[in-house]
Each structure stands twice: as structure tokens, then as C-alpha cells.
Amino acid sequence: MNAHPPLTSIQQPVVQVSNLVRSFGKGPNVLDGLDLSIRAGEFVALLGRSGSGKSTLLRTLAGLDAAPAGTVTVPAERAVVFQEPRLVPWKTVRANVALGLRMADAQERAVAALTEVGLGHRLEAWPLTLSGGEAQRAALARALVREPKLLLLDEPFAALDALTRLKTQKLVAALWRAHRPAVLLVTHDVDEALLLADRALVLDQGRIALDLRIDLERPRRHADPGFASLRSRLLSELGVEEEEPTPLTGSPSIDQGTSASLKTYPASRTSQHDRVTVAARQAAY
Ligand SMILES: Nc1ncnc2c1ncn2[C@@H]1O[C@H](COP(=O)(O)OP(=O)(O)OP(=O)(O)O)[C@@H](O)[C@H]1O
User: Fold this and answer.
1) Complex ipTM
2) Burial status of residue 128 (CB atoms within 10 A of its CB: 0-12, 13-18, 19 or more)
3) Which CATH number applies to 9-77+177-284?
């Protein structure tokens, strides 16, 4: 018998990035010696001002960028969902999800994945007949059917209307709890990060400038002091001015877990960030 039992899968890193450097042409380094480790089953939200390199990092992890300088270790079993669903228009929804699957039961798996995202009734539909929310759910099914160890989400809710966005966020939270892949979610929305993730990163000047652990067990509401403190910390690091709370603040409409115990992180470089305004709709959480 092994005297030293193996680490549980939840402790093992699935992503290891070391000294990653990326520039475009003669421009400055977009990623500049970036280090990052993501463990199995972690839900990591990646924030940062526009142009800070979030999508570049995601594309690198997806294997869609040029061979990077530095060391990048990622699992082969990974899938990406983009802001646009990117479904093949001349294939049915079911065929889109089964596309490229080699196993004998590919069709059954596609049906199961589509049923799980609530599209069991649209299996033979053409992508162009789907609503934006349905198309994005189909894209999620296409990713999940591959049973990824790493799910890369590049602003997947950004093109959806507010209500559909909330529903799709809840779906992603449920899918994560059911399948537990490691997730890297690129988002501009601090509240979305706090709602979904158990870790929030801020990318700045080509590196991870802030790395916050989020306690999943506490309510994620603005009225919760832990949530408010974590939210302020992220907004400050992003150089965002917090607005006065609206009457919607603290709404318990989404109720699954909470806020925050802070880890150590480098000193803030807020002054170098763009100044932007937080949208009032963020208070709807
Ligand atoms: N293919 C490319 N060719 C030239 N420059 C690029 C390319 N891809 C990205 N860049 C540049 O790299 C920088 C980082 O871009 P990236 O899309 O990764 O940022 P981002 O943080 O995802 O931005 P946003 O939040 O606005 O989507 C930007 O200055 C961008 O113009």
C-alpha cells in the first residue's frame, strides 16, 4: 500500500503558466513574464482593463495563439466558448454538438448535453432559428460534450440581453457544479466574476496583479460585508469608480454562495488604469 496517497484531483494543477511573454509586431509585451496556476475544478474569473491581454491569455491556453515564449502546460481535454456561439449554420444543432466527436455514441452524447442545457426540444433546429441565448446554450453543450478538464469562456454572456444573461450565468454555475471542470472566464463584469467564480484575477501590465480567493459558502449579495469588501478591492484595482448603491442593491435574486477571504497580492497599480464607470445594472445582483 502506498504510504503517501496521491493528492486528490481537486488539488492538482491543470494549468501551469510560467514566464509567459507575448507581443504583437514591434509593440510592447502584452503578456510580460506572466505566471499562473489553475487547479482542477477551480472557477477562475479573469478581469482587467480593455486591451490588458485577457483574450490573448485565453487564446494561448486554448492553443489558438502563436507558440508562446515561456512555459504553458494545459490539458488536451479543453474547450472554448466565445462571445459569439460560432455554430456551423448548415448543420443542425445536434450535428453541431456532435461535430468532431469520434466515439460510437457521439449522437447520444450530443442529445444528452443539449438536454442538459435545456435544448432537448431543438435538436434538429438550424442554428439561425435559435435565439441568442439558445445559441449560446448550444455552444455550451458543444463544449461540455467533450468532457473538458479546462473550460475557457471568453465573455460568453456579453452579447446577451440582461435577463438571458442572468439565466445563462445560472446555467453555467449549475454545469460547473455538476461536471466540475476547471474554468477560466474572461469578463469585464466584476459582479459576474463574484457571482460565478471561486477565484478572481486582475491582469495588469502583462501579469496577474491581483489574485483573490472567493468563499463559495457565503451569500453573494452587496449587503454582505465580505462581498462588498471584495467587490471594492476588485473595482479599485481596475480603476473603476464605484457608484452609489441603487434600490436594487442586495437583491437576493441569485443566491448561491458568497464572498470573500483575501489572499496576499502585490500592491495596487490603480493609478495606471483607465477610469470607467460601473454600470448601475451591476447592482441587480
Ligand atoms: N492579432 C493581433 N495583432 C495585433 N495586436 C493584437 C492582436 N491580438 C491582440 N492584439 C493587441 O494586444 C493587446 C491585448 O489584446 P486582448 O484582446 O488580449 O485584450 P483584452 O484584455 O482581451 O481586451 P478587451 O477586454 O478589450 O477584449 C491589445 O493592445 C490588442 O490590440
Assistant:
1) 0.97
2) exposed
3) 3.40.50.300
